Amino acid sequence: MRKRELKNMEWGLLIVAIILTAIGLIALFSATQQTEYDEFKKQIIWFITSIIIMVIVMLINYEILVKLSPIFYGIFILLLIAVLFTKPINGARSWFEIGSFSLQPSEFAKVVVILFLAYIISRIQEKFIEDINKPTRLLIIFGALALPLLLIIRQPDYGTAMAFCVALAMMLFTSGIDKRYILGTLLVILITVPILYNFILPEHAKKRIDIYLHPETDPRGSGYNIIQSKLAIGAGKLTGMGLLKGNQTQLGYLYPKTTDFIYSVIGEEMGFIIAGTIIILYVFLVTKALYIAKTAKDSTGALIASGIAGIFFFHMAENIGMVMGLLPITGVPLFFVSYGGSSLITSYILIGILLNISSKRQKTIFVK
Q1: Is residue 24 part of a domain?
Q2: Does residue 365 lie in a domain region?
Q3: Residue among 299, 79, 53 at smallest CA distance from 176
Q4: E strand map for the chain
Q5: Residues 342/108, Cβ–Cβ less than 8 Å
Q6: Furthest-apart CA atoms within the chain: distance in Å
Q7: HSE (CB half, 13 Å, CA atoms) of 271?
Q8: 193 in any annotated domain
Q9: How many domains in the chain?
Q10: Which range marks the domain in which residue 284 is found?
Q11: Which of 139, 229, 132 lies closest to 175 in space, CA to CA?
Q12: Are 122 and 66 in contact (CB under 8 A)?
């Protein structure tokens, strides 16, 4: 890699990612003391693995990754089908069990789908002179997303499905989609949400929404987790109760405290200062990703960077929102912070791609 490319890289992204991971490791150390720090030790292994994979991705030109994306897409479609035949874990068929570790293909699919969507949109733009606004062209794009989306919903994993939708929305906005489609989509959402809730969503999904709206109606059942989460965050106040000293964390009231509710552990034991810092660091990641999209050397790089910005934004907003009772619980991890090898590796692959794009940028390409 040339010196100019190394100089162009947005190293601040990597620094922020490592800071977030460090905060997550500290929280995991405290949350896993009763299990002899098993998940904490595994997360360190995943972190080292993630950095190695990130460096490899960083050194491969993103244009090559995009060209190979149809192959990756086909492979992951097969994996998403295969995972449906595995044994359910907490009601979902999302993981392949490999010894003492588990692999979640839907996490890695976030990378693959973004690359493949960038591949399709950029090809349409090249063929039709930047215009993607014909309904037939948009149908091709939506069709590429529909297959993995339906398979992930089948698991069921609604959080990941929503992350894909947010990523595509960001990519379409970057590609210059007509405003009438944006307004039309908002109108369709307003019409279909009540229909989905009343006639399509399974009972467990509807129950999650009901509990989100009124957790106090089932304080010992489905509302238990969110009530304990809010108690934990509130108890932390400004500076926290101290590591290994959080009542909800250490007495086992938070569950699952190492994955979905890791932010609650941080809020309780490290307080508002660190919890607020996480939000600031995430805002930095999202804005930097958008800046990279704006300054990418071509439309393909811009599309990928904007899609990654959408993934980062959704994971931050949904995870933090759900543990604070502001959004329904969907099981979405907090990237870089929550325990999980698939999630952590995916996070750093996305960082590696952003560093790659930023190293080759030359000019602004956003469509006005």
Answers
A1: yes
A2: no
A3: 299
A4: 96-98, 101-103
A5: yes
A6: 61
A7: 7
A8: yes
A9: 1
A10: 3-359
A11: 132
A12: yes
Asked whether residue 159 is domain-assigned, the answer is yes
CB 341 within 8 A of CB 97: no
Can you give the pLDDT of all 368 residues of the chain as single tens digits?
677 778 888 999 999 999 999 999 999 999 998 888 889 999 999 999 999 999 999 999 999 999 999 999 999 999 999 999 888 877 778 888 877 778 899 999 999 999 999 999 999 888 876 677 788 888 899 999 999 999 999 888 888 999 999 999 999 998 888 888 878 878 888 888 788 777 777 776 677 677 777 777 777 777 888 889 999 999 999 999 999 998 998 988 888 899 889 999 999 999 999 999 999 999 999 999 999 999 998 899 999 999 999 999 999 999 999 999 888 888 889 999 999 999 999 999 999 999 999 998 764 444 44
Tokens of 330: 């969907």
Closest CA to 125 of 143, 116, 137: 137
Predicted structure pTM score: 0.90
Rounded-to-integer distance, Cα 189 and Cα 206, Å: 17
**Which of 234, 230, 232, 210 is CA-nearest to residue 221?**
210
How far, CA to CA in Å, does 71 sit from each of 111, 166, 266?
13, 23, 40
